Amino acid sequence: MRSRRLDRRTVVLTGASSGIGAEAARKLSALGATVCLVARREDELASVAADIRRAGGDAYTYAVDLTDAAQADALVAQLLAEHPRIDVLVNNAARSIRRPITESVDRVHDYQRTMAINYLAAVRLTLGLVPRFLEQGHGHVVISSSLSTQLPIPLFSAYLASKAALESFTRSLSAELGGQGISTTTVHFPMVRTEMSGGTHIYQAMPMLSADKAADWLVRAVVDRPTRVTSLQGAVSEIAMAAVPGVLTAGMRPLFRQMDAMLDRKVRRSRQ
Ligand SMILES: NC(=O)c1ccc[n+]([C@@H]2O[C@H](COP(=O)([O-])OP(=O)(O)OC[C@H]3O[C@@H](n4cnc5c(N)ncnc54)[C@H](OP(=O)(O)O)[C@@H]3O)[C@@H](O)[C@H]2O)c1
């Protein structure tokens, strides 16, 4: 049999029960990786693993609530015991909250909930695997982040703050341990049609990347190990934010209001 690009690699992938993670699990396995699928919903994980095994791949499932410290620590112990070599960790599990700051004044728990899964759970898992990565002399950490950390976007303060924190942790990981074989990739996804984006009704009318196409971004991250995967729009926004942050922030505000109003009109029309 012809050798494939991820043969003999073991990839731990969180958020593998749906959306981008589930699609990426199938694609990484098709390239030869052994995939360790992590999320809470056992049946969904089992279904992704069954697809992979039917196609001749190797998949292990771990039904774990990553915000539960005891469950997350037990997961790390189990991964280390079951897999003599772990090459890649993809921190992809997350939750999103779309809410104006004015409606969040008595909802600090929104910020705690997003930090718990999007930031702290990813940090805990990464810290659990770092000793193994150092022992092996290699390890690659990928994080699923957003185009919206590259741009000043309203309404997602809890979600985006947690993603920005994870990006910063990942940058530190690279800065500190890059010389010891640890590499990192931040993936800045644009909007993707999944359960997550489906929570906001007006987004039905928004053109989005499919989960299948978005999974290709994660595959590119794992195979090529670039420092980041971004859209052109994201890269240009970062340059504009560095050069003229005030102008860009002020310019985006009315743009977003207009976009939301237009999407709302489109959804209403489609229901008539
Ligand atoms: N969709 C978009 O427009 C978009 C845009 C930019 C970035 N992203 C990022 O892309 C990644 C994948 O999101 P998606 O769009 O594919 O959404 P999704 O289908 O909702 O996937 C989220 C995944 O996270 C898992 N998860 C959530 N809470 C968990 C917990 N406490 N413990 C363990 N697993 C947990 C979910 O599994 P269980 O419910 O089974 O636990 C699910 O597998 C996320 O990091 C997201 O922030 C998405």
Cα end-to-end separation: 55 Å
Q: The CATH topology is what?
A: Rossmann fold
Rounded to an integer in angstroms, the radius of gyration calculated over CA atoms is 19 Å
What are the distinct ligands in this entry?
Answer: NADP nicotinamide-adenine-dinucleotide phosphate
Largest sheet: 7 strands, parallel
The helix-strand sequence is: EHEHEHEHEHEEHEHEHH
Characterize the quaternary organization of these chains: single chain
Give the strand tally: 9
The CATH architecture designation is 3-Layer(aba) Sandwich
Helix content: 40-55%
Quickly count the helices: 9
Anisotropy-based shape? globular
Question: Which parts are unreliable, with pLDDT below 50 for 5 consecutive residues or more?
Answer: none
**CATH first level:** Alpha Beta
CATH superfamily: NAD(P)-binding Rossmann-like Domain
Q: Kindly state the mean pLDDT as a whole number?
A: 96
Overall number of domains: 1
Strand order of the largest sheet: 3-2-1-4-5-6-9
GO molecular function: oxidoreductase activity
Protein name: SDR family NAD(P)-dependent oxidoreductase
Pfam families: adh_short
InterPro entries: KR_dom, NAD(P)-bd_dom_sf, SDR_fam
